[in-house]
Design a protein that fits this description.
By secondary structure, this protein is of the alpha/beta class. The chain has seven helices and ten strands. The strands form two sheets. A six-stranded mixed sheet has the order 6-7-8-3-9-10. β7, α6 and β8 form a beta-alpha-beta unit. The longest helix is centred in the middle third of the chain and has 14 residues. The radius of gyration is 17 Å and the shape is globular. The mean pLDDT is about 90.
Length: about 230
C-alpha cells in the first residue's frame, strides 16, 4: 500500500532558486529508503515538503489520500503528528531531562500525564535508554543524544519517520548503531525516509536509494542494484 507519493513536484523559492523539478516517486507502507545527492541537490527540501515546512510550487505531494498542499490550520498540525523527524544536531533542550525532551511533542498535544509517562518510557526503551530518563543531554554521548532524538520522533507513534543526515556527526561505530535502530522501525509499522550523502553507508545498508541531481530525480536504485 502506498503511504507517500510525489507527483511531478517542483519547488521554486522566492529567490528564484529551483530546489526541485518534476520529482515523482512513491514510498510504500513499511518501507525504508534513502534520498541522496550532492549538497544543494534538494534532499532537505524534499523532506520539508513532506513535513509541510514548505509547500510545492507545482505538482502534488500525497500522504495516504491527502494532498498536503490543500491542508490548512489544524489539519497541518494533525498531519505533522503522523510524521516523526530526526535531525543531525539532536536539537535537545540542555536544561531538561531526557524524559522531558522526549515528552515535549506529547505535552504540546495536551495528552494526560500518565499517558505521556507510559509512552516516554516505551520510546526510551526502544532506543536502549530506558535507564537514563533523568539524565541531562550533557551527560550523554553523541550517539546517546541521537538516540534521544529518535525516541522523541517515535513517541508520537508516527506512520513515517524522516531523518536528515542522522549519522553525519557520528563515528562509524555509533552511526551503525543508529542505523540499526532505524532499520528495525518498518517491522514495527513505521516507514523511514533518510537523507544522506554517504555513499559507502548507502551501499552497506542495501535499501532503495532515490538520487537527486540539481533538484531532479535522476535515479531510483533498487537494493539489489546498489553494488553497481
Amino acid at each position: 500500500m502506498t503511504l507517500l507519493r510525489f507527483d511531478r513536484v517542483g519547488k521554486r523559492y522566492a529567490s528564484g532558486r529551483e530546489a526541485l523539478s518534476e520529482v515523482s516517486f512513491e514510498l510504500a507502507e513499511g518501507e525504508m529508503a534513502f534520498v541522496t545527492g550532492h549538497s544543494g541537490a534538494g534532499k532537505s527540501t524534499l523532506l520539508k515538503l513532506i513535513h509541510l515546512t514548505e509547500v510545492p510550487t507545482r505538482g502534488a505531494v500525497l500522504f495516504g489520500e491527502r494532498n498536503l498542499a490543500r491542508l490548512r490550520g489544524r489539519k497541518v498540525a494533525l498531519h505533522r503528528r503522523e510524521i516523526g523527524v530526526v535531525f543531525q544536531d539532536h536539537r535537545l533542550l540542555a536544561d531538561r531531562s531526557i524524559a522531558d525532551n522526549v515528552a515535549l511533542p506529547l505535552i504540546l498535544r495536551g495528552l494526560p500525564r500518565a499517558a505521556i509517562a507510559k509512552r516516554v518510557r516505551h520510546a526510551l526503551e526502544q532506543v536502549g535508554l530506558g535507564d537514563r530518563e533523568r539524565a541531562l543531554p550533557v551527560q550523554l554521548s553523541a550517539g546517546e543524544q541521537q538516540r534521544v532524538g529518535i525516541a522523541r520522533a517515535l513517541v508520537g507513534e508516527p506512520r513515517l519517520l524522516l531523518a536528515d543526515e542522522p549519522t553525519g556527526n557520528l563515528d562509524p561505530t555509533l552511526a551503525a548503531e543508529i542505523l540499526a535502530l532505524l532499520e528495525a522501525l518498518p517491522a514495527r509499522g513505521t516507514s523511514v525516509l533518510i537523507a544522506s550523502h554517504d555513499l559507502a553507508l548507502l551501499k552497506r545498508m542495501r535499501k532503495r536509494v532515490l538520487v537527486l541531481d540539481h533538484g531532479r530525480l535522476v535515479d531510483d536504485i533498487a537494493p539489489e542494484d546498489l553494488a553497481a
